[in-house]
TrEMBL record:
Keyword annotations: Cytoplasm, Hydrolase, Protease
One Pfam family recorded for the sequence: GATase
UniProt-annotated location(s): Cytoplasm, Cytosol
Annotated source species: Rhodamnia argentea
A GO molecular function held by the record: peptidase activity
Record-given protein name: Gamma-glutamyl peptidase 5-like
Pathway the protein contributes to: Secondary metabolite biosynthesis
UniProt similarity note: Belongs to the peptidase C26 family.
Amino acid sequence: MKATSEKRYALLLAARDSDYVKKVYGGYFNVFVAAFGEEGERWDLYRVVDGEFPDMDELHRYDGFVVSGSPYDAYGSDCWILKLCLLLQTLDAMDKKILGICFGHQVLCRALGGKVGKAYTGWDIGLRKVRIVKDLFPCGYLNEMEDIPPALSIIECHQDEVWEVPTGAEVIAFSEKTGVEMFAVGDHILGIQGHPEYTKDILFNLIDRLLNNDCIEKGFAEDAKFALEMAEPDRKCWERICRNFLKGR
């Protein structure tokens, strides 16, 4: 009998499920697995925002980790954020695959010695065209993706950004708004400022919540929603990039 081993991944969830996402998708975990998971894999959920972390003795059993977005600041001093930084440093030392999304992108940068802070140009909410520098991509996960165009649209929702990438990292994508849209370290670290897992309806709901909480102004929210209605994110391309990275293809 041929032995097989299932791939195992962990989502390090740095945000609490919104009522909308729980109602429509059953939680952010399902959103991430639908975007990045494949048949025959095992995905585990750790709500790091609530202090739930994987056992250090179990880390070697995982093929990769995904760090989600969050309403918290990646440069904050909350205990769970500091513990997350230590975990990411450990995973980096183990050469484990780590995919950071939005807050995850920023906290991964911080943990590895880079600098993050408030975005110099303020909020970025909606669709953003990101220019990819294919020549700087680590070898491997773009090999089968010659058809990926040099610029892709992605859903963004952030007011913080990476100021300076860690030593040894490459900036592999940028936009007119944000200088570090993606960075990579070797073939095991990938940070993406945008949200490849988001659907447009998730962002529409998030814009409404930000407006209701006085985080953004009404005119800004209306402009963001109008622009979002006029175009589509390149979700399939982003999902392929993320899947190829996580699976080591």
